[in-house]
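Design review, sub-item: ligand-bound model
Attendees: FS, YL, KQ
YL presented the inputs for the iron/sulfur cluster complex:
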Amino acid sequence: MITIIKKMIGGVPVPDKKELSEKSPVGFAGIPDELVLFVSQHIGASPVPLVKPKDTVKRGQIIAEPQGFVSAALHAPTSGVIKAIEPRFHPVQARMCEAIILEPDGRHEPVEELSPVASDLDSISPEKIRAVAEQSGIVGLGGACFPTSVKLTPPEDKHIDTYLLNGSECEPYLTADHRVMLEQADKVIFGLKALMKASGVERGIVCIEDNKPDAIEAMKQAMSRYDGLELAVLSTRYPRGGEKQLTQAVLGREVPPPPGLPYDVGVLVSNVGTAYALAEAILTGLPLVERVVTVTGEGVAKPSNFKALIGTPVSYLIEKAGGFSGTPGKVIMGGPMMGCAIKSLDVPIVKGTGGILVLTKEQAAQEPILPCIKCGKCIDACPLGLQPLWISAYAERGFMEEAESFRAMDCMECGCCAYICPAKRPLVQWIRMAKSEITSRRKARRQS
Ligand code: SF4
Ligand code: SF4
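KQ shared the predicted structure:
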């Protein structure tokens, strides 16, 4: 069954710029001289290192073991020697974090016990699939980085009836998920069926934006080999791929405000990259040690899609994409709407990195910030029905209680409001500041 969906609350029509890299097939980026593996790459407790400096490791070997229920294992992406365990700057968390530094030996030798877990879904139990997700360190690859084994074990009072596979990839410029669907459709669908089996869900819906017709065709063919799968083709509009937006558009169910999650309305959502990673772990035994990354933007010579080892430095990937074209103005980890600008190219990619975007000097030039003209465009654009002009105005003046009362904490930082604002006001920055301040105050209140 195919459903065509056009409706969406808020959002903005952003030029998608996917033409820069969408025709670039995924190629192996290679092995850099050093891999920087942050111990914590996900939501939840940090795993604890199992290795020490001078230890030799092989590809796929576990090097940090999870702690507690919400945690994920970390594995060596290639063979080599552990050079150090030391703090390095984490590009997403924007602070120094413990990292395992691996010096590859170039042999890319796998650990002996790396072997397929199962060749089909009939011969693997739901418990075993959840165990594979846990032991393979699989986390949500759409950017949220929530441990997949935990997502597959929702609280008992939640009655899940639908699994949404998120192939929207609504962030402009990024084409990693598009290429995965095009080149690995069978494995992605196998992964979706594994996710459904592990969570006991009968209904699966593959959700793709209509700007990827070739991926829609590839996925349609792969889906035809299974029962119980539907396809939802959505009109292209940012932020179509947010899990709340997807749940609303495809099923008409409204996810409650934070801490509400799709499972509160009977839905689980996973990214296509996550489904592919789970399929790889089951079919080959390979844990999550690499992922597809788009290196793109007008500021790189040859926008490309790479399969890159986790921990590969950004500088290495830009070099592989032909280096800079002209003088770069800004390098962003992720897409232009939700990504974070990075100051140093020495930082590595992490499990949640779907793209590296290089903007030219002209593109990155800051336009002057003007006073708010109360046009209301930011309110119309907000997919969550918030009032960004008031939250940001209060945050800018330090009135955090007022910002909180205008639901600052519900903001998903999608950037639609700032994108549409004719006065070029940095609305998301102020809202982010309010969220951080409100969180600190709540913590202080709990401790007092
Ligand atoms: S879009 Fe910008 S100018 Fe218009 S109301 Fe919102 S903050 Fe003010
Ligand atoms: S960044 Fe926050 S306030 Fe702005 S549009 Fe997105 S959800 Fe709404």
